[in-house]
Amino acid sequence: MTGGRFSTIVIFLVLTAAAAAAAGEEWRDRIETALAQKDTYEFKEMALGDLVKEIAGDAQINIILDSDAGGVSRSRKITIGLTDVSYESIITWVGRAADLEWVVQDEAVFIAPSERLDEAGRRQLDRRARAMRARAEKTWLPAFREALSKPHKFKLRPRPVAEAAESLEDLLGVNVVVSPEVSDRTTVSLAVSEMSGENIIAWIARKAGIDYAVLNEAVYFAPAGEVRELRIAGLDFSSRGRPWDEVTCQYENAPFREVIKDLSEKSGVEIVLHSEVPDLPPVTFSAGEISLMEALPAITRSTGLNTLVTSEQGIVYISVQRTPREPAAPETPAGEPEGDSVDEPAAPEADVSESD
Questions:
Q1: What is the C-alpha to C-alpha distance for residues 338 and 172, in angstroms, rounded to an integer?
Q2: What's the pTM?
Q3: Which fold has domain 142-235?
Q4: What pLDDT, on a 0 to 100 scale, did the predictor assign at position 70?
Q5: Which pLDDT score is estimated for 276?
Q6: Which of 66, 70, 115, 340 is deepest in the core (most CB within 10 A)?
């Protein structure tokens, strides 16, 4: 066989394999296209199995709900209302209400408990979360932020949080979802004037003893612990969640205050620095894919300082103190034998307190 004919055959085989692979992945493109389409739903005490079947029919994609053996109850009742949101967000909210995750695999959307997903599925969750975050900035989020920034007069008589959420939807024109973990007996009242929509939301959450996040085309009222996890994961787009946005740090012997200024510009978060140390040491610190709230205490620790980092209404406050020094060991009196040498215990690391 001549070299030319051999090369032609190799190229033909490579192109054939590539074409087959592309054809085999057409179903993925079709599902992703369907997930980007929008719809409106109002589910009230609807069985999870029936709800998933309806969504699959409307989106015209395969959706497979894990079995009872996998820990999924098809009869579990779901109540959720969403207006003009993508199927991607709809499925995500349904999964969140049922404590389930979902991935795209083998020509279907698979909804299951997180522990039932394989390693590839868990990696897909991370990739999808990053992709959804990037899309949000280009699609629904700008209009959502504008809606939450407008001032309103709002009066709410004592009502359960679910009814307060309905009033907020009418007032602000955005979707509001209440976690199933918020008790139906939790009531709240509020009367304000000329207050931004987001601060109205924040006050309702505060008075109800819960918290809120902005994600997946909706405001989400949920217990503080659940919202904190969403912020740590970088999923919360509310003004309070922005301190948990990820930043990249590359500093070599950089002035401390310049580092703080740089991080503020990168994250878009106002950082207020209070320091008991007049001459702050330079910073040498490197990290990627780290939230602002994690980076700040790590940076101050790297300089040998002690710090308190807190977040309130989207503003981050840093209080810097010197690390307490270990008391000096007493001198041995003259003429007294020193005895055996004993190593002193190392001084404990300075405590770093973080809160939001």
A1: 76
A2: 0.72
A3: Phage tail protein beta-alpha-beta fold (3.55.50)
A4: 77
A5: 82
A6: 66
